[in-house]
Input
Amino acid sequence: MELNSEVITTPPRPAATVVMLRDTAVGSRGIEVFLLKRHGASQVLGGAFVFPGGKVDLADAQLDMQAHLDQTPQALHSGMNEPSIEPLTAASFYVAAIREAFEESGILFAQGATAHHADEATELLKQGLTFPAMLAHMNLRLHSQQLQPWSRWITPKVPSVTNKRFDTRFFISAVPETQIARHDNFETTESIWLRPKAALEQYWQGHIELAPPQIMSLVSLLTHDTVASVMQAARSRLPPVIEPEPFDHEGVRIICYPGDERHSVREKAMPGPTRLIFKNKRFEPVSGFDSLFHA
Output
């Protein structure tokens, strides 16, 4: 992973991502998270493992919400902890998250959707239909109630692992039992289900690359044994806004998070370490791997 030092003066681009979860086998308590490996030639986090997601398109806000969304924009807006945005903007983040999850993983968050529906929808997109046109053709209503806001990440003006800025809403969701998540072999080349701790262990051992938001998001899942527990936690609190603040010390890049003594926000926003350091061509917790597991 290469370090970026370029100052980006443009505003962050709105984006949305879905942290997709499933419970492990009966009798073995724990959750697994779905990760995709971005194509090595990708301009954003090429070769890294990420959650399904991407930029918000103008068409996401132009969807016929009454016909193709199970909740009103006003209802979706109420749970996002963002009074400064309009309800239609809030709804567009849900639509973008669902659209990107479908395009990148094949999971279709729509009412009553099965693997057969997902396959048919995929074929329609390949034939050139837009996402809204596909929904209209199949008479589908997006199931936004399956998603819960989890966090909001705003890339700083000096991004550390990319030369682009994003304002990304992270949603959490259980994968529908009737569907199978997979990579698209275009934007993503591999996919894997891992327990959050196992994903962090593989990152530490050098088997997979993770960017800081993925590292810290996985840490936030460590205390949960079931998907229901994660979803309840999401419903019981407003999603925190996380604006990483990087600085260089003796030629080494350090990212600090809310609650760190160097961060402008003194209240901690999430579990785990409050700073990561660029070392061994990746970001690591300053106090070593075990500090990922301390609240």
